[in-house]
Design goal:
Elements: H1 14-101, H2 106-113
Length: 114
Amino acid sequence: KTMKGKVAILRLSPNEEDRIIREEFERRRKLRLQQVREQQRFIALRIRRKVEQRRQHELEQLGKELKDKWEREQSAKISTLQKIYQENLQLLGQGQRSAKENEPDWVAIAQKEE
């Protein structure tokens, strides 16, 4: 008798079944490890980006603060120099007036000598 048209069902031996189960377990374990590593890389990348953004923001803030401080100091220096300049102009004017007032009266001296 031949087995035409009939499908023979093959049964795995217990050892083959165990091996296939172990291989599938290992395949899934490796896949989970790979997924966890990918996830860790993604998290690390996100953290590095946040740290870099925060550092960049802090640098910009520091630059702005230093620029503002420098501008305030320059403004104060300009104000002080303008005040000193005005005081010197007034002193110069007073010196000229004082010199004029104390200028000898040459006409009177000449008349006196005659």
